[in-house]
Amino acid sequence: MLLIEEQIKAGKITSEVRNEVIKKVSVGMRLLDLCEFVERMIEEKGGEPAFPCNVCLNHIAAHYTPSIDDESVIHDGDVVKIDIGVHIKGYIADTAITISFNPKFDSMVQAVNEVLKEVIKVVKAGTRVGELGRIVEEGARKRGFKPISNLSGHSIEPYKIHGGLSIPNVWVPSTSELKAGSIYAIEPFLTTIDGAGLVINGNITNIYSLITRKRTQDKDLDEFINIIWSKWKTLPFTPRYFKDVIKKKSLDMMLNKLVKLKILRAYPILVEANGKCVVQAEHTIMPTDNGVIILTQ
Ligand code: MN
Ligand code: MN
Question: What structural domains does the chain harbor?
Answer without folding.
Answer: 5-201+274-294 (3.90.230.10), 202-269 (1.10.10.10)
